[in-house]
Amino acid sequence: MTTPDPDGLLAEQLLRFTRRVHRIQKRHIEQCGLGVTPAQSRLLRTLAHYGSPPRMADLAERLEVVPRAVTSLVDGLEASGKVRRVPDPTNRRVIRIELTDEGRKALGEVRGARRSAAEEILAPLSEEQRAVLGGLLDTLVDGTGVEGRCG
């Protein structure tokens, strides 16, 4: 007789929950009518964290994707006027990516959509449950788990 695997069940619940979060956030972002994909919204949020316009390679590293993926995202956002490519002031061979006013506006709307999605997700929880969940999430985000373990 095998014993139940509580960690396996928990892992499955966590995966199902993250898929639900992504699905709800995507729906809320689409309802804004910005024409921004979840990946593009992530790039906009990442751009906002830089003090000065980053290089494409910096974005690829921060997003943990290949540079070609960033190029495609930037192409789409540039076509819609949300970002622009600008030359590096010290090295003309380097191109940097900056948010435009339209991009900052879109970023604000994306943040609002994400907050709205969070409200929908957290709606069934009481204030006490939300406080407990917040503490647990802090522990998981900042925790010292074993990384890169298979099986």
**β-strand amount:** 5-15%
The major pleated sheet works out as: 2 strands, antiparallel
Overall pLDDT confidence: 89
The helicity comes to 55-70%
Order of helices and strands: HHHHEEHH
Report the count of strand segments. 2
Shape: elongated
Give the low-pLDDT segments: none
- Terminal Cα span: 21 Å
State the strand order across the main sheet. Answer: 1-2
Number of helices: 6
Kindly name the structural category. Answer: mainly alpha
Q: Rg to the nearest angstrom?
A: 19 Å
Concise description?
This protein has 151 residues and is mainly alpha-helical.
Key descriptive features of the protein:
151 residues; 6 helices; single chain; mainly alpha; 2 strands
Task: Characterize the structure shown.
α1 (6-31) crosses α5. The two termini are 21 Å apart. The chain contains six helices and two strands; from the N terminus they run ααααββαα. It has 151 residues and is mainly α. The mean pLDDT is 89. It has a two-stranded antiparallel sheet. The chain has helices at 6-31, 38-48, 56-63, 67-79, 101-122, 127-142, and strands at 83-87, 95-99.
